[in-house]
Prior knowledge:
The protein is of the alpha+beta class.
Amino acid sequence: MKQKNLLYAGKAKSVYRTDVDGKLIVEFRDDITAFDGGKKDVLRNKGSYNAEVSAFLFDYLGKNGVKTHFVSMIDPRHMIVRELDMIPLEVIVRNIAAGSIVRNYPFKERTKLDPPIIVIDYKDDARHDPMLNDDLIIALKLATPAELKKIKKIALDVNRLLFDLLAAQGITLVDFKIEFGRQGKTICLGDEISMDSMRLWDSKSGESLDKDVYRLNKGDVMATYNRVAQRITKSTQKR
């Protein structure tokens, strides 16, 4: 498979066309951003850690019945994926109150959310990713009612699978963001699942194990990413 022209460049990933119809290459770059792009850096090996974790979790979810765009890894930072017609929604599943939900609503930090809360934002940097409700999603024709129901079901399935998987390694899945796309009429999980898109806490110490280390200057970002990647991708292979 040969990498061809750049299709899309985001804040931390680049997507390329290939010489194989229906297949794309995603490059996980070392860029890291926070606060809507207000804070930016390039951290060596960050892309490979996120790619490693994303590949492992996509593979795990696929083996448990969740359809994803993941095909295989070319090298530590380049992933082959199926081309999807991406839906411009950011689907956030929250198990514990933290981050923006505490800033914007009267939730107390670390409150368990049972059942989990699903929040959906419009993926649009120019509008700062505003929150949507079901009526707005349908009125904007971003998804049909049937697709929206399917997206929410998949999001909760992913939450259940990842929560249990990570809990076995002493990691609490606080919340995470995922994205979806269409392959024909099938809704598939796309984008990535990594320390950039999950909020993770050590189950015993409460230590942040995700991009909050970068956002809030909590320590050595790459040492944390490396340690978490090892915990997720190596230890869980014993299961």
